[in-house]
Amino acid sequence: MIVNKDEEKAQQALSELEADDSDESWELLAKELSEDQASKDRGGLLEGVVEGQSDPTFEEEVFAAPEGELVGPFETERGFYVIQVESATEAEATPLAEVSDQIRQQLVATRQQEVAQEFQTDFIAKWTDRTVCADGYVIVRCSNAPPPASPEGAPPVQANRPLAPGSAGAIGATTSGLPQGPIPPPAPEAESGLPPGVESLGGAGASPPGATTEGPGAQQGAP
User: Fold this and answer.
1) Which tens digit of pLDDT belongs to each residue from 135-172?
2) N or C: which end of the chain has fewer CB within 10 A?
3) How far apart are CA 80 and CA 3, in angstroms?
4) Range 169-177, long-range pairs (CB < 8 A, 24+ positions)
5) Could you check whether the bond before residue 185 is cis, i.e. omega within 30 degrees of 0?
6) Model pLDDT, residue 77
7) Which H or E run contains 113?
8) Which residues of 110-138 are buried (b: 16+ CB within 10 A; e: fewer)?
C-alpha cells in the first residue's frame, strides 16, 4: 500500500504502478511517496490485516479487492490509499476443543473478580453498621459518622442505615420510634431505702447481685 494526504501524489503512485507493479517499483514508490512509517521502507508491505481492527473504509476496500489488482486512490481519515492485495486467507472458526480450556479460565477469572467485589461490598457494609467509633476517631466507615455535607440550599440528607441499639441521640439519629407521652414517675422505695423486692444487701444468706433464688430449677450465681 501507499498512502499520502495529497491525492495527486497518490494518483501519481497509481499511474506508475499501472505501468510497472513489480516489487522493485513498489519499493521505490513507497519510499518516495508513502507516509506510512510502518510500511514505506518495506515496499509498502503490510502483513496480517485483520478485519475489524483498523479504519473501516480501508478495510472495506481491502477485503473487497481482487487479489493482484491495483485499487485506488480512495480516501480515508489518514489520506488517499493505493493498494494491491497479494494474498488473502479465508476466515475459519477455531474448533471448540482447542479453545475450551482458555474459555473456561477466562470465565473463572471473571467470576473470581465478581465474587471478590461482592464480598468486599458486603463486608464493608456489614462492619460499618456494627462499628461505633469513639469521639475523635470517627471516620466514614463508622456507623455514627455524620452524613456527608450537602451543598448550600440542598435538601437535608436522610440517614440510610438503621440505628444500632443504644445509639439514640447520636449524630444523624432520629427519635421518631421512641415512646411518646409523659415520663412515668420512679418506682417507690421501701422503708429501708432499698428498691421494692430487695430486703437486704450482703450479710449471711444474701444472694449475690443478679442471682435468681426463687422457684424450681433456680440457679445461684451472677448471670
Assistant:
1) 989 998 899 998 877 777 666 555 444 444 444 444 44
2) C
3) 5
4) 170/132, 170/144, 171/144, 171/145, 171/146, 172/144, 172/146, 172/147
5) no
6) 86
7) helix 96-129
8) eeeeeeeeeeeeeeeeeeeeeeeeeeeeb
Are 80 and 73 a contacting pair, CB within 8 Å?
yes
Set out the domains of the chain in order of their start, with CATH numbers: 2-84 (3.10.50.40), 93-151+160-165 (no CATH)
Locate 90 and state its grid cell: 479465508
b/e map 151-170, b = 16+ CB within 10 Å: eeeeeeeeeeeebeeeeeeb
Q: What are 218's three cell numbers?
A: 433456680
Written as nine digits, the cell of 161 is 442505615
Helix/strand/coil for 39: coil
Percent of the chain at pLDDT exceeding 90: 18
The set of cell numbers assigned to 160 is 440510610
Q: Are 72 and 82 in contact (CB under 8 A)?
A: yes
Report, in angstroms and rounded to the nearest whole number, the Rg of the chain calculated over CA atoms: 42
Helix (H), strand (E) at residue 73 = strand 70-76
Our CA dihedral for 75, 79, 82, 83, rounded to 10 degrees, sits at: -90
Ordered strands of the 70-76 beta sheet: 2-4, 79-84, 70-76
Instruction: Supply 214's cell numbers.
Output: 426463687
